[in-house]
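Project standup — Tuesday

K.O.: blocked on the structure for the chain from last sprint. Re-posting the sequence here as requested.
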Amino acid sequence: MIELTTLRYFSGAFETGTFSQAARANEVSQPTVSAAIQKLEQRLGGALFLRAKSGLQPTPLAIRLYHDTVESVAHLSSLDQRLQTQPQQRVRIHCAPDVLLQSFAPGLNALRWKSPDLTFAFTDDLLGSDLAFLSEACVPAGHGFILLTEEPFCVALGRFHPLARAAGLRLEDIVDQALIHRPYCPDADRLDPAAAKNGASPGPAAQAMNDAQLLDLVAAGLGIALVPRSHGEGREDIILRPFIHPEKTSRRLGISYRKSVFASTLAKQLADTKPLP
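H.V.: unblocked you, prediction finished:
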């Protein structure tokens, strides 16, 4: 019989794409998860994951195992809490358009295992949220903030863009390039090459609604964009190059939380499991 703990490690690796994030979500060491997966592969007689630049790639065996067990694992993991008939608590979460949610997935996954009575509801209402993933400059009044990291902006280009071979790019290198605009980003106007050129260059080639959409537009060759460095992780269809600028071009990313015991406790737990870029 396969142990429930082993299946939890497997599900974590399958969902997050790395052993390290699966370990964080289950609050164990990475070698513990790796060893458990290896024993599981020996038991099943085949590999479950292949390693790639973008992370762990599940094999057909892993896909079948996940779909056969994911509901049972979640059900059994929360059995003791459900038997205690604890009422569900709703957590309202706001994710800013310039933040990629995937970097916070291990923390949310850890909260799910630790407190199965929690339900997550994502909202566009920043002021009404319990938690928010955003830049420090966007923290609303009445919310606290936990800084997770400060990361520089880079120039995002399609893989075959002529500037992709450059070691770094200055403002003058990109001022005449087709730019995809990020109107939702607090630093968009300050970093806009067209604005720096006093409007002499043409308008933006496209305008994105969020950074996930923005990266797809860059990959499709519609233009270039200025994005945080961590946005290039796990993407093989875009290239990120350092943005060399006389001013400091970085953002301070973290978790904003309503000033209540409930929200502040969740924010601290998320911060403890959030992998830094």
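K.O.: great, moving the ticket to review. The first strand starts at residue 49 and ends at 52. The two ends are 38 Å apart (CA to CA).
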